[in-house]
Amino acid sequence: MLQDLIQNRKEKLNKILKVEINPYPDSSRRTHTIGRILDDFEAIEKEKGEIVVAGRIRGIRGHGGSTFIHIDDESGRIQAYLKQDILGPEKYKFFKNFDIGDFIELQGTVFVTQKGERTLLVSDYKILAKSIRPLPEKWKGLSNQEIRFRERYLDLLVHPEVRERFRKRAEICDALRDFLTERGFLEVETPVLQTKASGALARPFITEHEALQIPLYLRIAPETYLKRLIVGGLEKVFEMARVFRNEGMDTAHLQDFTMLEFYWAYKNYEFLMAQTEEMLVYLLNRVFGTLQIDYQGEKIDFTPPWQKKNFRSLILEDCGIDINKADTAEKLRKEIQKKKIEIEDLGKLGFGGLVDQLYKKVSRPKIKGPLFLTGHPIELSPLARRNDQNPKIVDRFQLVVLGQELVNAYSELVDPLEQRRRFEEQVEMREAGDAEAHMMDEDYVRAMEYGMPPIAGWGMGVDRLVMFLTNAPSIREAVFFPLMRPLNTQKVCPATKAPTQNEEAVKSGITRAKAWDLVCQYVKNENSRKHMLATEAIMRALAKHFQKNEEVWGLTGLLHDLDMEMFDYRETPEKHGPTTAGILEQEGVHPVILAGIKAHNDQCGAPRKTLMEKAIYAVDPLTGLIVAATLVLPSKKLSDLSAQSVLKRFKEKSFAQGARREVIASCESFGLVLEEFIQIGLRAMQDISQNLGL
Asked: Among residues 105, 111, 109, 118, which one has the least CA distance to residue 77?
């Protein structure tokens, strides 16, 4: 049926083309919007002059020699009257090539019909765009929510209340901007593509820069860049930022959403609580004219003062667990199990993650709000300032409404040494399997080391606010084009699950046991074998860090020096790597591994294009530097060595002069600052210290 309708419209389009009329002209002669006609109807009627309007046909009713149509534009809808006596038989008959949904230009004068409807009497018309697909009926044709989101353009066309919601969204954003600019804030823009995903506890989206051959992350928050601007001397900055989090989907969360963040020098989180009340009261009065909001049958009263509650007391009240007593991951895990509270990944989460999930399970759903939640454990806030009275919590608040966080704010941590320590803890959590933990952000710490004033920082999800204030049942209603799975595609993403021949995520073609047998066969020197084991360990750790194929990266590291005893490297350095590749090719090892092995030796002329090839080039000399730094320790134990000690030795040019420092420092070419690279390498070698004899 639909295809018949489409075919019929295409035939009408051909008829229009046959008489050499362009069905898609570049502009219209419109003199009046429909809204202006309706507002000034009496004056326009009195002038008796012809006007030109343009819009989409929304209804057609034919009556022999006369036809009534309705057209609308963004400003309104009006009836138009086409008469054969006025247009002439040929022009009137040609109108049969028009359908509901077509765009049309009408020229004529206005009058009022006997039924009292304001109408345009048409003296001429012109096609502006021929539609091929019929519009859906309002209720029957576009009631499915998924179809509405996929084809939002039709949703907007059919449902005026949806258009109104997005007009309100624009007014809300204007009000937020005005509130801040009136207080002296500067609106700024910060990078969307970042080398470190920081500013929030969230799983990032990962991409790769083709020219630089480095991994990049879509930002999960603009926070650390905005605070860099405070270091640069700007005291009040804000950004209406699009952010991206690779997380689950539900009615209150989006993968890409708009975050308003601002940072205010010389202020604290308590000051921002008062500002939050003031901002939302200002917004509600300006846009809605009331402080009482009806959301899905629930009444929310934003009249100040708003309720305040402590994180610990809230959880204690709701489930009987005291997080001050159960103050380690092990203790809290036991309490949760004792209370038979089901929490996903219970065994993997650290203390902060357990507290957060416990709060979300037993407390947050009960909050009606607006409520200021304070006293968050320090593990949940790696960028927030430690509380002066209680070092286990931070100076932070969340504004919670109907079980959803609207605002997150805190007094910022400005101590660079403490920030580094917290980042290191987050890195350990990340390496232990917490994908939402922070990465080490060396550049941000460096910026902090130049000095930061006291800062109060504030963030709010704009889409969630719009959802609440416009009574939308889902956050997807608050954005024009929410992410949807493409139709007629497999559920497995080919970009990550079906890699091409040149990607790292391939089958190695050799087992780890077979690879070690080859090492034992060709390499007799014990220290050389240990070097290959160390390289394997670091490569596996880097693969885990970058979410690459650990087996392929590890085997590349293990086998990279297989030919080191076959010839004199000083005489024929160009053979090192290609000789190994030739041996492994006969064993059926994948070309990706062979390319990585050749790329680690800059004397053989092999290019370093991929992330793995750049990584092994830098890892190869790093193992030697770490071993040398271990052997000068009194204990000569890897477990006693710190990354800071290795970094210090790196800077001492007289120490381990054979360590190719420029090659180690090339870690920045694949997205790691030197200290982070050393930290990953050292931890990897410490994990196999027994095998290394250190």
From this structure: 118
